[in-house]
Amino acid sequence: MKMIDETLDGGGGRFVQNIGLRKIRPELVLDLSRLISRILHPAPTGVDRVEMAYARGLLDRAGHRTAFAAVHPSGVYGRLCGEKVRAFIDHTVQRWERYGTYENPVECYHQALRWLWHLRPGAVPGRTGNRVLIQPSPNHLDRPRRMAAKIRREQSRFICLVHDVIPVSHPEYARPGGGDCHQRRLNTIVAQADGVLVNSQATFHAFMQRSGMAFAGKPVRVAPLGVEPVPRVPAPMPSARPYFVILGTIEPRKNHLLLLWIWRDLCERLGPAGVPQLLIIGRRGWENENVIDMLDRCAVLHGVVRELDRLPDQELRAILAGAQALLMPSFAEGFGLPIAEALAAGIPVIASDLAVHRETGGDVPDYIDPLDGPAWKQAVLAYADPGHARRRAQIDRMAAWSPTPWDSHIDAVLNLADEVVAC
To answer: What is the crossing angle of helices 82-98 and 105-118, to 10°?
Structure first.
């Protein structure tokens, strides 16, 4: 079989162009361990959404050769019934869309027991051709023996998605021990993966810097995360006061503290009634005592800064639709999916000046150094006025921007699966 190898200077990794590649159609096995492990959680994390997008995308694009497997919460690995997986996917999407924090806990528990029974793992069938195990989450990557056992059971090649290397490159932002745990994940990927997808050029460079020659010769594909088509949202009701949104888990690298100090200063100078609201959408995470103290004990912020956790997607979209801007003052990110989602919905973005944010948002958002408090304050005051020239200019720039569809990312997954069985 004739094969032509090329090196992509800007794409990262090795791209194999093969005139006979389309004839090799491996069986695809998607590991759904993450979604099943999160069965009691009424609202998704970003990683949950990515695994769901893989499940739906592979069913849509290659459903006839896609199977599902998981490490069940009981600890057993095996194949899942395809019909039950499809029903579970539909149920979970509707759950995220409609219920969130409003879900009845007793009903949630009963539904979880039902799905854990329906999704009990079965035997792995013998291999009749090429097979590729696909994992879009970090689950179990810190346990190399478990990963090796899954690959051995499947008799397959293995590809995975690397979301970021932040716990290793910036251990000060991780949970205690998080850096060591993530390093074990990277070691497992280097030792066991036959190919890797990364979500951005920034993640590619960080991953290759830390894997070095150990991953040389294996394909690495840069595949930006996709954005779901945005459902039409009714025009938001005029708000009593303008508001901004910051979206994501409350953790040190998200830099919530900068915004809380800005809002405190504005409240003291202008009075709480003259300050736009700040809506913090996300659960409380780790190592953030200063932020929690501000939220719980700073009286001047009460009623001005609001926490909203585990919102159903339909409510989240409605809130974003009425925001003056999405704020993303992060110190480090692997991709910046909220930026892409906000821009796709026509919501202005003010983001920290990170290479990965510029990779995601292009020239559209306003970018500010995450340590430049005065510049952030000026931007907030400008964007609080819907007719301000600075905000209108960003809305005008959106006309030239378009999000990456999930189909493009799934195409990269399928191409990489073909490539690793052809090597």
So the answer is: 160
Helix axes 178-192, 201-211, angle to 10 degrees: 80
Cα–Cα distances (Å) from 102 to 93, 107, 166, 169, 319, in that order, read 15, 11, 33, 37, 16
Determine the residue type at 290: N
- Confidence (pLDDT) at 235: 53
Which residues in 229-348 belong to E strands, given as ranges? Answer: 243-247, 277-281, 305-308, 326-328
Q: Are 135 and 50 in contact (CB under 8 A)?
A: no
Per-residue pLDDT of 207-245, as tens digits, reads 999 887 677 789 999 999 999 877 655 555 556 789 999
7 burial level (CB within 10 Å; 0-12, 13-18, 19+): exposed
- CA–CA distance, 375 with 31 (Å, rounded to integer): 44
| pTM score over 0.85 | yes
Type of residue at 395? I
Cβ of 72: how many Cβ atoms within 10 Å?
A: 17
